[in-house]
Design goal:
By secondary structure, the chain is mainly β. This is Vancomycin B-type resistance protein VanW.
């Protein structure tokens, strides 16, 4: 995703909002949602060099899934390491009983919190320059039983 491209390029995270619910196709604690005009993804190139953003789209086949790849091209300043902590503060889903033709059953799943540390090392150096912490709280998804 674009967020991960900027994350691993070491660019400044100006604004991002994780999804409210955990979606397993994204790296846990390291993802962003966009819902214009209220929720946006913003990052800043705080280096003295330019950055080229390349996106590659692979369309889905019938019954399959597509893919989007994002690459950041520029002068590498940082080696970035991502450290994902253990999940904690587990929360259980509620059960809702609904009726009607528009009812969509859902098996539900619990919520949790997770911390991700972004570790910055200058290229060619092993010493940690600085770190940034991301904390994400995923809400549970309710179980829905259609009657």
């Amino acid at each position: 995703t674009l967020f991960n491209g900027a994350f691993f390029a070491g660019l400044d995270d100006v604004e991002h909002k994780p999804h409210s619910f955990y979606i397993d196709r994204y790296p846990v604690g390291r993802e962003a949602t966009v819902a214009w005009p209220t929720v946006d993804l913003k990052f800043k190139n705080d280096t003295e060099y330019g950055v080229l953003i390349q996106t590659i789209h692979q369309p889905s086949s019938i019954g399959g899934t597509g893919a989007v790849t994002v690459r950041m091209w520029g002068t590498k300043i940082w080696n970035i390491e991502s450290i994902t902590g253990a999940r904690y503060n587990y929360t259980s889903p509620d059960t809702r009983y609904l009726s009607g033709e528009d009812c969509v059953p859902n098996s539900g799943y619990g919520g949790f919190s997770i911390d991700v540390t972004r570790v910055f090392r200058k290229v060619g150096e092993s010493e940690i320059d600085h770190t940034e912490e991301l904390n994400t709280v995923y809400t549970p998804s309710d179980t829905v039983i259609c009657q």
